[in-house]
Structures are given as structure tokens and as C-alpha cells.
């Protein structure tokens, strides 16, 4: 019934409906950590691994526990080639991501 | 087919305001409502079925068929969630953010003492197992539109009167479909194409000369047994009906009952001057309907095709500023549609699909016809402040529903209009797109089939989660 009565203008999804494309989507990266869990080497997709020269800042986000919990530990790091990256360790799936802020 | 039921007790209130339920005899009368037809897309025909209209004998159809699905909205919800069919269910009133009340209730809930109009707290204390459903007006209106669409194939003269109730003009259809019972059967069969059997089975059908007669006949009908009143039996049929079928002010009906006038037959014995002296125009109309002198033809209904624009958020949004920003983008989008060009906007609706199901809407009639973004968005923002979406928004929808003449009037010193720019002005109004860019996008669309340009929009700029702060929106002026 619900299918038959929904019209293109009122349905939840449609091929022509403009959708916002989020900017700054995280990308998976390979990170090697030390015994404390701090990042020491970062390898971006298709690049060679770089050593983490310094950690500028570190913070944690826990949010949206009512929906799909977001639990991240962020690291703002400086690589040995001088580049600055914002990485985060997703505490729910254990993976590392790089994100443009 | 069955004849009219003389023991008519369950009666329609006036002008599409639902039903004052008094009967429990019929096994079908188990869904009860008292709330008005509050509609996202009830359209200009809603609730105006019996408003006096100047008689134009050349248009409209004298023979009317009324199809009516009582408690249409709750039935649609039960069709969507069949598991609730045998439980105590109540639909919440739409458009309220505090002190929610009950709108429609199922038979089981009714047995437990739950009544339309009760506060939720009262209802839950009466029936602890009560399932409360949020209304989904967008879904109900889509169903109504579908119903109208399929019935248009039967007759071009179609007049909706709120959700779940429609009048069909049947003049001249005898040669096409046969006798009146066959015509009714044909209409019901058409509904089977779009609605599931339980919903169609609950449809009441009444056929009579004029909308009033058809409506009263539909009210007297039971599910699966249409009531068809031929011309010569209209007056005797009406004379047995209670006075509360009259589409007049409730106060008038109450006064008539207090005076001991219970049926239309009793009312018709009074001279017109006495009724006019007591009740004014309502008294005159009541007498005309009671005696069958006033026959309101079904008139073809015209609703301009609305212009719709919608925006789907990647994650549900509850931040008011974000919704305001999205509203601005939607208004710009809708105004730029070719279908809008040359017309100003006079009526607009803003709706949303909500996180976890349900929908929400506000609508407004603009004070002046306009084609300016701010003048359209501003009253909608004010409405949103009064009645905000109760949950986070998944998709925001905008509909331009009513249109006026082109709005050519500009301010004396306004240099943001096209003529101002042509005369040397360089400023563009907020949201306006330079003609050169518009042309470039048009060309790209011709080549590629889509616009490859995007605009960066703020979604939730203060979010702690970086990917929620900004987004790209297709740029298609």
C-alpha cells in the first residue's frame, strides 16, 4: 500500500532529488602506532609511509549516542616532510582515518 | 445495493469537519474521528464542499457520487503496519508541539475509553497498551492524490472535499458504465487499483442528486453497501435524516435540537421567513437542503500543479539555522524552475520527512504575490518557530502551491531588478545568479546532461564532527 500510494514528489528517495554531498569526508589511512597507541608512521593511500615528527594537538569526540555512536580520538600531527595532517582513530571500529578540517 | 438506513445515527458534521460519532451498531464504524481535516495537500477544495457557490447551470454535474473513507489517515497507517490492526491504536493530532491530543482511534482503543480530542496523558491512563502513532501528512496526501488521479479516469468532474472524501460528477455516464449501481461499482473497482482491499472495502458510497444528498447517502451507507437515491426519492430520504447532517454552524444544529426539531422532515415544515428570522442565511440554506430545493452540482476542481523542490540531508538535521539555510536554497531552486516563470507565488508549504518515520509540515498564504526569496522564506521561518519539526529532519520539501499574476512591481530605488542591472547597476540580489553564469551552466547541461558545478553550503558550521559542517549542493540555477 505504501508503495502504491507514494508519488515521486512525496517519496523518501528519488533519482532526481538533490542530495547534499558532505565535504571533508574521512579517508582510511594506514597508521603504525607505538606501545601507547600514539601514531608513529602514517601512509596515505598510494604514497610512501611518513614518520610522525610531532603531535600538535589531541582531542576526543563522543557524540550521537542516540543514533549511531560516534567515538573518535583526533590527532593533529606534523609529518617528517613538514605536512600537517588531522588523523583520527575510530574507537568503534579501530580504524584510522585522515580528515580535512 | 441497499436502501437508506432510516436509523441513521452517525452523522457528518458540517464542511468536512469529520464526524460526530454516536453509533456503535454497525460493525464497520469502529474508527472514530472528530478532528478537522488538517491537510498538507487537502487543496482548495478541502472542506468547502457545501460552501455556497453561484449557480452556473452550464458547468458541473447534478448527479453526484460521494466516496468516503472514514478515518482515512488511521486506516492508511494500519495498512502500512498490519501488525497493529488488532491492537489499541491512536493517531496523534498533527500540528501540535505541546499538549498533544488524540486525533483518531481504533475500535479497541475506543472500547478502552480512548476518545478523539483527549490529551495523550488521559488516553494512556485509560489504555496502558495504547500504541500512539505520529501523523504522516505527506503520506496521507500522496494517497489522496493517487485516489484523485485514478478517479479522474472515470469522470473529469471531480471535487475533493478533504482527505478521503471526494465527489464525482456522474451526469451522462449511464451510457458508458450502465445503471447507477454499476457506476458505483466501477468507481470502487478503480480504487482497488491503487488501494489494498481492506481500505476499499471500508469505503462508503452514496449517490444522489447534488453533493448534499450524495454526502448524506454516503454517511448512511455501510461498507460494501452503497446507498443510491434516485431523484424522486431524495426528499423522502432526506426527511428521515437528523438535522446534524446539515452543513451549517454547529450552534444552529444545537439550537434546532433544543427546539425539538430532530429531522430534516420536521425542519421542512417550517416557513422560510421563520427560519431566516431565527438563523439567518443558515436557516434559508437548511430549509433548501431539507426540501431538496437546493441541489449543489459537483464542480470540476482545478489545482495548479505545484512546483516542488526537496533536499535530502546526509544525516538528519535538527539545527534550526541549518534548516533555515536549506529553506533558502529550496526557495531559490523552486523559483528558478521554468514552470514558475511569469507567475508570482501566493501560497507555499514546507514539509519534512522526519528521522525514524513521520512527517511534518507548515503552510502559509503570502500577504502579497511575490517572487522574492526572502518574502517567501520569511513567513515560513516564522511558522517554523511556532511549530518546529518534532524530530530531526531527513528531507526538507518545499511546494509552491498557489500562484498569482507576474509580480512586476519594484521599489523606486531598487537597482537589483533586471532593468536596474541593464541600466548599469552591478549589484545582484542575494541568491541571484549572474546571467553569464546561468548561460554557462545551461550549456554544460546540454553537453553533459547534468550540471557539474557545485556550491558550498553551510550545513552545521559549529558541529564537532568535521564532515557535518559543510556540503556541496548541485548548482543548477
Question: Can you give a write-up of this model?
Answer:
The complex is a heterodimer of chains A (101) and B (477). Chain A is globular, with a radius of gyration of 19 Å. Residues 1-15 of chain A have low confidence and may be disordered. In chain A, a hairpin with a 5-residue loop joins β2 and β3 (39-43). Chain A has 101 residues and is mainly β. Chain A is built from one helix and seven strands; from the N terminus they run αβββββββ. Chain B has three domains: 11-76 and 138-239, 2-Layer Sandwich (Alpha-Beta Plaits); 307-431, Dna Ligase, domain 1, CATH 3.30.1490.100; 433-477, no CATH class. Chain B contains 17 helices and 17 strands. Chain B has a five-stranded mixed sheet with strand order 8-9-4-10-11, sandwiched between helices. In chain B, α12 crosses α13 and α14 (320-335) runs antiparallel to α15 (373-386). Chains A and B meet through α1 and β1 of A and α1, α4, β12, β15 and β16 of B.
Q: Any chance you could write out the topology, listing elements then pairs?
A:
The complex is a heterodimer of chains A (101) and B (477).
Chain A: H1 2-5, E1 21-22, E2 27-33, E3 39-43, E4 50-63, E5 70-79, E6 84-90, E7 96-98
Chain B: E1 11-12, E2 19-20, E3 32-33, E4 63-68, H1 72-80, E5 89-92, E6 102-105, H2 107-111, H3 120-126, E7 131-133, H4 137-152, E8 158-160, E9 165-169, H5 174-177, H6 180-192, H7 197-201, E10 204-209, H8 211-220, E11 227-228, H9 234-239, H10 250-258, H11 264-268, H12 272-279, H13 281-290, E12 307-317, H14 320-335, E13 344-354, E14 359-370, H15 373-386, E15 393-404, H16 418-422, H17 435-448, E16 454-458, E17 470-474
Parallel strand pairs in B: 5-7, 10-11
Antiparallel strand pairs in B: 1-2, 3-6, 4-9, 4-10, 5-6, 8-9, 12-15, 13-14, 13-15, 16-17
Helix pairs in contact in B: 12-13, 14-15
Amino acid at each position: 500500500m505504501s508503495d502504491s500510494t507514494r508519488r515521486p514528489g512525496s517519496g523518501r528517495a528519488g533519482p532526481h532529488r538533490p542530495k547534499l554531498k558532505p565535504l571533508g569526508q574521512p579517508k582510511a589511512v594506514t597508521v603504525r602506532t607505538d606501545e601507547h597507541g600514539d601514531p608513529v608512521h602514517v601512509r596515505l593511500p598510494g604514497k610512501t609511509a611518513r614518520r610522525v615528527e610531532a603531535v600538535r594537538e589531541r582531542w576526543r569526540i563522543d557524540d550521537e549516542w542516540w543514533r549511531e555512536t560516534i567515538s573518535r580520538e583526533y590527532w593533529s600531527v606534523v609529518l617528517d616532510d613538514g605536512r600537517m595532517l588531522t588523523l583520527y582513530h575510530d574507537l568503534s571500529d579501530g580504524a584510522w582515518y585522515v580528515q580535512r578540517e | 445495493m441497499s436502501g437508506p438506513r432510516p436509523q441513521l445515527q452517525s452523522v457528518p458534521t458540517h464542511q468536512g469537519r469529520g464526524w460526530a460519532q454516536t453509533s456503535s451498531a454497525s460493525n464497520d464504524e469502529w474508527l472514530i474521528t472528530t478532528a478537522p481535516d488538517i491537510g498538507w495537500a487537502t487543496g482548495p477544495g478541502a472542506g468547502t464542499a457545501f460552501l455556497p457557490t453561484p449557480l452556473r447551470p452550464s458547468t458541473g454535474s447534478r448527479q453526484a457520487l460521494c466516496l468516503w473513507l472514514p478515518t482515512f489517515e488511521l486506516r492508511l497507517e494500519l495498512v502500512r503496519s498490519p501488525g497493529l490492526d488488532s491492537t489499541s491504536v491512536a493517531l496523534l493530532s498533527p500540528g501540535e508541539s505541546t499538549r498533544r491530543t488524540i486525533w483518531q482511534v481504533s475500535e479497541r482503543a475506543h472500547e478502552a475509553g480512548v476518545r478523539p480530542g483527549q490529551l495523550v496523558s488521559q488516553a494512556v491512563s485509560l489504555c496502558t497498551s495504547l500504541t500512539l502513532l505520529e501523523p504522516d501528512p505527506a503520506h496521507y496526501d500522496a494517497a489522496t492524490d493517487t485516489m484523485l488521479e485514478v478517479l479522474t479516469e472515470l469522470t473529469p468532474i471531480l471535487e475533493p472535499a478533504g482527505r478521503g472524501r471526494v465527489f464525482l460528477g456522474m451526469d451522462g455516464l449511464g451510457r458508458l458504465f450502465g445503471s447507477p449501481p454499476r457506476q458505483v461499482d466501477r468507481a470502487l473497482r478503480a480504487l482497488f487499483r491503487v488501494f489494498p482491499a481492506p481500505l476499499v472495502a471500508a469505503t462508503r458510497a452514496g449517490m444522489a442528486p447534488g453533493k448534499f444528498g450524495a454526502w448524506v447517502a454516503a454517511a448512511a451507507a455501510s461498507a460494501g453497501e452503497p446507498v443510491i437515491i434516485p431523484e424522486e426519492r431524495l426528499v423522502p430520504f432526506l426527511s428521515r435524516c437528523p438535522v446534524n447532517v446539515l452543513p451549517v454552524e454547529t450552534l444552529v444544529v444545537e439550537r434546532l435540537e433544543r427546539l425539538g426539531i430532530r429531522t430534516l422532515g420536521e425542519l421542512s415544515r417550517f416557513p422560510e421567513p421563520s427560519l431566516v428570522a431565527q438563523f439567518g442565511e443558515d436557516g434559508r440554506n437548511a430549509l433548501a437542503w431539507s426540501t431538496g430545493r437546493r441541489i449543489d452540482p459537483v464542480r470540476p476542481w482545478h489545482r495548479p500543479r505545484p512546483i516542488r523542490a526537496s533536499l535530502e540531508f546526509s544525516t538528519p538535521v535538527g539545527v534550526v539555522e541549518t534548516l533555515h539555510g536549506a529553506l533558502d536554497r529550496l526557495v531559490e531552486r523552486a523559483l528558478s524552475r521554468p514552470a514558475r516563470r511569469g507567475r508570482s507565488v501566493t501560497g507555499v508549504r514546507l514539509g519534512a520527512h522526519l528521522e525514524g518515520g513521520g512527517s511534518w509540515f507548515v503552510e502559509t498564504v503570502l500577504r502579497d504575490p511575490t517572487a522574492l526569496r526572502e518574502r517567501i522564506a520569511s513567513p515560513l521561518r516564522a511558522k517554523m518557530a511556532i511549530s518546529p519539526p518534532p524530530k530531526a529532519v531527513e528531507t526538507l520539501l518545499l511546494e509552491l502551491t498557489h500562484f498569482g499574476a507576474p509580480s512586476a512591481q519594484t521599489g523606486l530605488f531598487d537597482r537589483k531588478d533586471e532593468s536596474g542591472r541593464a541600466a548599469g547597476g552591478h549589484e545582484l540580489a542575494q541568491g541571484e545568479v549572474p546571467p553569464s553564469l546561468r548561460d554557462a551552466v545551461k550549456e554544460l547541461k546540454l553537453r553533459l546532461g547534468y550540471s557539474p558545478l557545485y556550491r558550498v553550503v553551510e550545513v552545521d558550521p559549529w558541529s564537532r564532527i568535521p564532515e557535518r559542517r559543510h556540503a556541496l549542493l548541485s548548482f543548477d540555477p
